[in-house]
Design a protein that fits this description.
The chain is of the alpha+beta class. It is 17% helix and 12% strand. InterPro entries: 4Fe4S_Fe-S-bd, 4Fe4S_Fe_S_CS, 7Fe_ferredoxin, Fd_C, FdxA, RnfB_subfamily.
């Protein structure tokens, strides 16, 4: 099963994970990253790179975040989301957002809050 980016990534968007991905299966949105599940080879090298533990195996996603499995698929195919393979600076105020819970209402799919 592929890996999934979960809620902890919202408003942080650390990109340490994209550098190590051998398949370049990460896609970048305004304030979140997504993994294309059809391209992920389940190698897990991205998991320890995420400083906020936002990357989880699809079969290990907690029930309250199961919607992120479908969301990763959807967003990785969104026409405005581009493949990312080079590290960038995290979001402004990422340190403030790193421990915040329930950030889904802040997810930006284009430049508008969902």
């Amino acid at each position: 099963m592929p890996f999934v980016v979960t809620e902890a990534c919202i408003q942080c968007k650390y990109t340490d994970c994209v550098v190590v991905c051998p398949m370049d299966c990460f896609f970048e949105g305004p304030n979140f990253l997504a993994i294309n599940p059809d391209e992920c080879i389940d190698c897990s090298v991205c998991v320890p790179e995420c400083p906020v533990n936002a990357i989880i195996g699809a079969t290990e996603v907690p029930p309250e975040q199961l919607h992120f499995v479908a969301l990763n698929r959807e967003l990785s195919q969104h026409p405005e989301w581009k493949r990312i393979s080079k590290q960038k600076e995290p979001m402004p105020e990422h340190e403030k957002w790193a421990q915040v819970k329930d950030k889904l209402p802040l997810l930006l799919i284009d430049d508008k809050i969902t």
